[in-house]
Amino acid sequence: MAPLNLVKVRPNPSPIPGPTPAPRPRRKVAPVVVSLVLIVVLGCALVFCWLKFGWFSKDAATPVQSGSSLREPESTAAPGAEALPSTLPELVQLADAGNGRASFELGERYRQGRGVIKDEQEAFKWYVKAGEAVDAEVSFRLGVMFDAWDSEFSTRYRVFSCLEAAALCGHQYAQLKLAALNLSNTRASSKDALGFGNVVDAYAWLNICAASGDAASAAGRDELEAEIKRTYTPVTLVQCQVRTRQLLKIIESNKTSASKVTVLPAREN
User: Fold this and answer.
1) Of the residues 41, 76, 148, 258, which has the maximum number of CB atoms within 10 A of its CB?
2) What is the Cα–Cα distance from 49 to 52, expressed in whole angstroms?
3) Residue 226 domain-assigned?
4) Position 188 pLDDT exceeds 90
């Protein structure tokens, strides 16, 4: 029997145990995800409110001028122009008879060169004639036109005079326009209590528009009142309310007189 070839196998030494590695901390994913979801939801809500209610719009930021429920006509064309004669001789004949709307239409034609030669002096002649008629709508359109007309014939005196003539007949667009002009001129120039663009008239016209039910004018009046208390003397607010009563008295007087309209005292040009 052949002998067995026995090989002595040395056992492998056992590995020396090392330090146990610390477990890695798990990332906190849940709070980050929740925050992102909340941001997205909030953004969607803001977009919905902006589209639905008009938040953050320009109109909402300026309630006195743009946010008001009263809107000014975009055109200065003669009111009822479609009912006026189309030919120049017939229009002149009607204007010479005292029709303020025909006179205004002639002024527009000469100012724009529409169907006639462009002649600012001739246009101004017809505008003046239009202002002589007792027509609140024509007076308002004249004020808007003079305010936008870049001409030597357009002055602050004419802008305010025409708008005041319409406003004192109860024309609400003219009242709003005067409130806006007085307010902007007050903040752009010196605080003159008697000249054009004074804070007393601005407050008075806003107060009158607010009394007619215009919510934006009421908000603008209250905002201006707070500014007056901060910037002016206590007497100024009293003057504002006295001025409101004075204007309302003239407006009520003009409602009972269709032929002769009371206006404010004339001021120097």
Assistant:
1) 76
2) 5
3) yes
4) no
